[in-house]
Amino acid sequence: MKTIIHKADTRGFANHGWLQANHSFSFAGWFNPERIHFGALRVLNDDTIAPKMGFGTHPHDNMEIITIPLKGVLKHRDNMQSDWQQVLPGEVQVMSAGTGVQHSEINGSADEYLSLFQIWVIPEKQGVTPRYDQKQFKTEDRQGKLQTLVSSFNDAEAGSLKIHQDARLSRIDLEEGQTFTYNLKSDNHGVYIMTISGAIEINNNSLESRDAMGVYETKAFTIKANKNSELLFIEVPMITL
Predict the structure, then answer these.
(1) Which CATH class is domain 2-237?
(2) 103 marked ligand binding residue
(3) GO: which molecular function terms (predicted)?
(4) What whole-number distance in Å separates Cα of residue 20 and Cα of residue 82?
(5) Percent with pLDDT over 70 in the chain
(6) In what order do the strands lie in the sheet with 41-49?
(7) Closest residue by Cα to residue 47 from 128, 138, 114, 101
(8) CA angle 113-115-118, nearest 5°?
(9) What are 22-68's pLDDT values in tens digits?
(10) 60 is in an annotated binding site
(11) What is the biggest distance separating any 2 CA atoms in the chain, rounded to whole angstroms?
């Protein structure tokens, strides 16, 4: 088993006033040649956005974009639909940028900060028709068990959002002292574990809130929760760029 440790305080950070952004991988003005990607995972941004602020209309293409609000109200609008779409904590949003899409993202609250993860996954094929989807996931369905949020269009698993990559995004909430064994899809996959909150241990490595770890070249590994913990798994093919 091979591992990569990314402690929370080693991430790139940008303070734009209205936006506090933490970058797990090179993004915008922050560049680290050793932190370009983890397999097909290209971006994992941990953003906090001030009330009524956000990103104006901007383009994307040939990327699978997943947004997970953690606190507050996200509002999204793109050129595939004219109405603003509200995305709340407990919901997940996916957008296949494909041949090109223009979209805007703002904090839909007048007085509460918005906290979210935005994830970019490199697609397995280029030039697909752009699409948008979102879905609500119940907290109780990830208590001590894996809750799949996103999977491939080629994966028959029901109930998850779909993207154009042989990837799997999932969450689990563990109580203090609880253990969980994660099984990877194949020998060619790796999984990037983000500790949303709490404290865990994997293979004698301790991770606390917002620490992350990439695991690959193994079939399975076991996690122990040292505190009540919320975890996000991003499993992707270990492609090279």
Answers:
(1) mainly beta
(2) yes
(3) metal ion binding
(4) 28
(5) 100
(6) 12-15, 19-23, 41-49, 114-121, 64-71, 91-96, 131-136
(7) 114
(8) 145
(9) 999 999 999 999 999 999 999 999 999 999 999 999 999 999 999 99
(10) yes
(11) 50
Residues in the chain: 241
Burial of residue 131, with CB atoms counted within 10 A of its CB: 0-12 exposed, 13-18 middle, 19 or more buried:
middle
105 is in an annotated binding site: yes
The two three-digit tokens of residue 121, written as one number: 């996954």
Listed by start position, the domains of the chain span 2-237
Q: Which residue has the tokens 């109405």?
A: 83
pLDDT of residue 82: 75
Q: What are the structure tokens assigned to 198, written together?
A: 């709490």
Tokens for 131, please give them.
Answer: 């699409």
DSSP class of residue 125 equals: S
Place of tokens 């050793």: 34
- Chain centroid offset of residue 172 CA: 13
At residue 8, what are phi and psi to the nearest 5 degrees? -55, -40
